[in-house]
């Protein structure tokens, strides 16, 4: 009689890592129950495909439910999420404003507060501010900047700059 070699499944270890994403209080109460249910389902369910579809679906639904419960019962998380939303909105507004400002000579001149344009070409231009100071604006890599205030590439791959700092 030939006995089949025992093959240990990696699924329980993966599931343990997956459930570690639950809130700590929930996991402290339900960890053993979750692991036992997982092992029972893995053993009893015929199709691995349907088993994993069920596990991922159930995990997603219960994770959402548990974090919504956590969110409702912890006021500081509500404040933190609201603060993150406000900061994300401000960052987005800043990025959009700067993208628009650097997109054309006219936009950049208005962004800098130019009262009068005194000269303009395809690659540079000059204007006078309300206080009488004259500034030169130049085109660099398809965007407009104050002369002497060009961005420096912080992360470059080949000829492409991933991150520049003005």
Quick structural gist:
With 166 residues, this protein is of the alpha+beta class.
How many DSSP helices? 5
**Anisotropy-based shape:** elongated
Largest sheet: 4 strands, antiparallel
How many strand elements? 6
Strand line-up of the largest beta sheet: 1-2-3-4
What is the strand content?
Answer: 15-25%
**Class by SSE composition:** alpha+beta
Instruction: Give the assembly state of these chains.
Output: single chain
Question: Mean pLDDT across all residues, rounded?
Answer: 86
Radius of gyration: 29 Å
User: Structurally, how many domains make up the residues?
Assistant: 2
User: How far apart, in Å, are the first and last alpha carbons?
Assistant: 75 Å
Order of helices and strands: HHHHHEEEEEE
Unreliable segments of 5+ consecutive residues? 4-8
Approximately how much helix is present in the residues?
40-55%
What would you note in describing this structure?
- By secondary structure, this protein is an alpha+beta fold.
- It has two domains: 11-73, no CATH class; 104-166, no CATH class.
- 55% of the residues lie in helices and 22% in strands.
- The chain is built from five helices and six strands.
- Helix 2 packs antiparallel against helix 3 (48-73).
- The radius of gyration is 29 Å and the shape is elongated.
Throw out a few tags for this protein.
four-stranded antiparallel β-sheet; elongated; two-stranded antiparallel sheet; 22% strand; alpha+beta; single chain; 166 residues
Topology:
Elements: H1 11-19, H2 24-44, H3 48-73, H4 75-101, H5 105-112, E1 114-120, E2 124-129, E3 134-140, E4 143-146, E5 152-157, E6 160-165
Antiparallel strand pairs: 1-2, 2-3, 3-4, 5-6
Helix pairs in contact: 1-2, 2-3
């Amino acid at each position: 009689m030939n006995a089949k070699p025992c093959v240990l499944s990696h699924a329980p270890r993966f599931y343990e890592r997956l459930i570690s994403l639950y809130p700590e209080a929930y996991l402290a109460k339900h960890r053993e129950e979750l692991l036992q249910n997982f092992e029972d389902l893995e053993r009893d369910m015929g199709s691995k495909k349907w088993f994993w579809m069920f596990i991922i679906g159930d995990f997603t639904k219960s994770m959402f439910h548990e974090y919504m419960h956590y969110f409702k019962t912890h006021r500081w998380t509500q404040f933190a999420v609201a603060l993150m939303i406000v900061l994300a909105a401000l960052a987005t507004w800043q990025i959009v404003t700067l993208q628009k400002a650097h997109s054309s000579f006219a936009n950049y001149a208005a962004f800098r507060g130019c009262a009068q344009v005194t000269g303009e070409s395809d690659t540079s231009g000059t204007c006078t501010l309300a206080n009488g100071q004259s500034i030169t604006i130049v085109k660099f890599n398809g965007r407009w900047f104050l002369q002497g205030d060009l961005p420096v590439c912080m992360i470059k791959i080949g000829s492409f700059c991933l991150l520049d700092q003005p």
